[in-house]
Design goal:
It is elongated and about 70 Å long. It has a 4-stranded mixed beta sheet with strand order 1-2-4-3, covered by helices on one side. The protein starts with a strand and ends with a helix. It has 7 helices and 4 strands. The protein folds into 2 domains: 68 residues, 2-Layer Sandwich (Translation Initiation Factor IF3), CATH 3.30.110.40; 118 residues. The protein is an alpha+beta fold and 203 residues long.
Length: 203
């Protein structure tokens, strides 16, 4: 099947691709021809998200031909008005989960300094902080884990080519993006707390 998606505005190329793939049997081939950057990238992302493989080639008129093979793992999901927005939300959810792990690892890494500080601020005795020293030998593991997840999350959200859509982002998408940056800044602040703790307390 050949699908001509030239000059289609977002999210129409993905909608047409989804409809065509839904109608095809497993291992069938769908050829999508598209001449917009957002259409090309979004169709590729959609194909990968649905466990399909693809190859691409440049056409003489400047358009891109995507040869998509429908995999056996393809799941025909419910029809949505904007599958591109659904992909954006899903990717941002994954990035937020990665940053949550980075934040937890950063807390464990800085626990030797951060936990006593919190106990002092809230007026709690140091008696309950004795076991924090047990984590000290593993601090480098927590630090590397936090840095790894922090870098991976930053790459997914900022560096990697993002899904493009001319449509207005949904509230969920905006909230997830904001939550990502809050977690990112908190993780960096917590991870490097032992290095600027003395400056804060002017020691």
């Amino acid at each position: 099947m050949i699908l001509d998606c030239r000059d289609m505005e977002c999210p129409r190329p993905v909608l047409a691709t989804k409809k065509a793939l839904d109608s095809l049997p497993d291992d069938a081939t769908l050829i999508v021809e598209v001449n917009t950057l957002s259409g090309r990238e979004n169709c590729k992302r959609f194909a990968l998200s649905q466990h399909c493989s693809y190859s691409e080639e440049q056409l003489p008129d400047g358009a891109t031909r995507l040869v998509i093979v429908k995999g056996k793992g393809y799941v025909s999901g419910p029809d949505v008005d904007n599958p591109v927005e659904a992909m954006i939300v899903r990717e941002r959810q994954n990035s937020v989960l990665v940053l949550s792990g980075a934040f937890a690892a950063a807390l464990l890494s800085a626990s030797c300094c951060l936990v006593p500080t919190l106990f002092v601020l809230f007026g709690v005795s140091f008696a309950g902080v004795v076991n924090v020293a047990v984590l000290e030998p593993y601090r480098w593991i927590f630090t590397l884990s936090a840095l790894g997840m922090l870098s991976f999350g930053f790459y997914r959200m900022v560096i990697r080519k993002q899904i493009e859509c001319d449509c207005e982002p949904s509230a969920a998408s905006k909230v997830l993006k904001g939550l990502f940056w809050v977690l990112f800044l908190l993780t960096v602040a917590v991870l490097f707390y032992p290095y600027y703790e003395g400056w804060i307390w002017q020691e």
